[in-house]
Amino acid sequence: MKSVLTLSASLLMGLLLSSTAHANDHKVLGMIAMPRNATNDLTLKIPVCRVVKRIQLTADRGDIKLNGASVYFKAARTSSQSLNVPSSIKEGQTTNWININSDNDNKRCVSKITFSGQSVNSSDMATLKVIGDD
After folding, report:
1. How far apart are CA 60 and CA 79, in angstroms?
2. Cα dihedral across residues 113, 30, 97, 105: positive or negative
3. Could you say which residues form the signal peptide (predicted)?
4. What residues of the chain score a pLDDT lower than 70?
5. In the chain, at which end, N or C, are there fewer CB atoms within 10 A of the end residue's CB?
6. Taking the model in full, what pTM does it have?
7. What is the pLDDT of residues 96-106, one digit of tens each?
């Protein structure tokens, strides 16, 4: 009876771990507080090497106006890509997936993502959440 319980527990743990692996495909890379005045130097640094194929942006608190965004790769410090981001994101809204030209074979890791923009229609700073998909 003890071996049946041990086997059942092992199978259950295996199922939980495999479903967790599928759920981890989308990870929050970080959050940025958007100031009320327009700025060009909002940087989300990603300290751990992450191959990211695409990102989503969510306005967690307040409305956000974006003027642009760029992704920088770790392998070559001057290697970057401009991202096609929407000009505005309303509070609670999540964008469609934004593709990044990341090469899995060469392990082009994203080191940082920069944004230019500001909070709008809010007395507080809006928060921009960046979600990555590998």
Report:
1. 30
2. positive
3. 1-23
4. 1-25, 76-78, 102-107
5. N
6. 0.75
7. 999 887 655 55
